[in-house]
Each structure stands twice: as C-alpha cells, then as structure tokens.
Records
---
Amino acid sequence: MDIGTILAFIFGLFLLYIIGMLLVVPIKLLLKLIINGVIGGILLLIFNLIGGFIGLKLIINPLTAIIAGVLGIPGVILLIIMQNIL
C-alpha cells in the first residue's frame, strides 16, 4: 500500500463520518420535538383537569402541545394569555 491509498481510505472514513452525523442530528432533533410534544400534551391535560375547577381550559392540539412541551410552564401561561387576547 502506498501513501495515496492510505490517505484516500482515511478521507473516505472522514467523509462517511460527516455524512452519518448529518443524518443523525436531524433525527435526534425530531425525536426531541416529539418527546417534548407528548410532555406538553400531558402538561395541558393536567392543566385542563385542574383549571376546570376555576373555569380555565385550553384546547389540546399538536401546536399547543409542542408550544407547551418546548417552553414548559411559561408556554402554558403564554397559551392562556393568547387565548384571552385573541
């Protein structure tokens, strides 16, 4: 084996690593968004159960679940404010 073959092999491995990382990062981001959306939906469900006693209710749909999942409790507060303004 000469040095050109070894360098080509190393470059190929590096390129394979870069392509692999470009494919894995969006999948991790998508999984995180889905998990946060589920957590947001559960948070909205709990809020609706507790808020039903005082007359507060939020609609649970994918957008509100993602907002509540990504932002957490401030996201639920934001949704309450938006519901009362709009």
---
Amino acid sequence: MDMSVALDLGREALVTALLICAPVLLIGLIVGLVISLIQAVTQIQDQTLSLVPKIVAMVGVAVLLLPWLAQRIAEYSQRMFAGA
C-alpha cells in the first residue's frame, strides 16, 4: 500500500465519520440554541435545563436515522473489504 492509497482511505474514513455524526450533532446544536434563547428571554439561568432536551432530541434523531446511518456504515465497510 503506497502513501496515496493510505491517505485516500483515511480521508474517506473521516468523511464517512463526519457524514454519520453531522445530523445528530446539528440537532443538538439547534436544540441547544433554541433552549438558550428561551432561557435568555425568560431569564432562567439554570445550566442543566438544556441538557435533557438536547439528549432526547439527539437520541430521537439517531433512532430515526438509524437505517440510513447503518446503510452508510455498511457501504463504507463493503468498500474497505473489497479494496476499492
């Protein structure tokens, strides 16, 4: 295996990991911003208030996107084992 193949494999692994993590992290970011805005408007300064809605939203999105996420991981694994 030469250096260019190793770099391509590493790049593809990072892109796949980013593609898998992005939807869940994006929902966590959006829910966190909404909760922060609600806290700022209502002047509630509880730090733990945003934790539960973010966790619930992120787990919910992960469950909803589980077939798509599993398909992406399976495709990546097939490409790695096929040597393509």
---
Amino acid sequence: MEFTEALDMGRNAFMMALMTAAPILLIGLGVGLVISLFQAVTQLQEQTLTFVPKIAAMIVAAMFFIPWIATRMLDYTQSLFTFNQW
C-alpha cells in the first residue's frame, strides 16, 4: 500500500465517522439549544434540566437512524475489502 492510498483510507474513515455521528449529535445540539433558550427565558438555571431531554432525543434519533448508519457502515466495509484486488 502506498502512502497516498493510506491517506485516502484514513480520510474516508474520518468522513464516515463524521457522517454516521452527525445526525444524532445535531439533534442533541438542537434540543440543547431549545432547552437553553427555555432556561434563559424562564430564568431557570437548573444544570440537570438539559440532560434528560437531550439523552431521550438522542436515543430516539439513534433508533431512527440506526438502519441508515448500518447501511453506510456496511457499504464502507465492503468498499474497504474491495479496495485492493490482489
């Protein structure tokens, strides 16, 4: 394997990690922003108020996105095994 091939494989792995984690993390970010706005408007400064809704939203998002993530990971794994035809 040449250096450029190794760099391409590393870049593709990094992009795959970002693409598979992004939907769940973005939903957690959105829920966190909404709760932070709610806390700012109502002047509720409870630190633990953000954790339960964010975790619940991220679990629901994970259950929704698992088929898509699994498909992307299987496609990526198949592309890794067919990358070098010896």
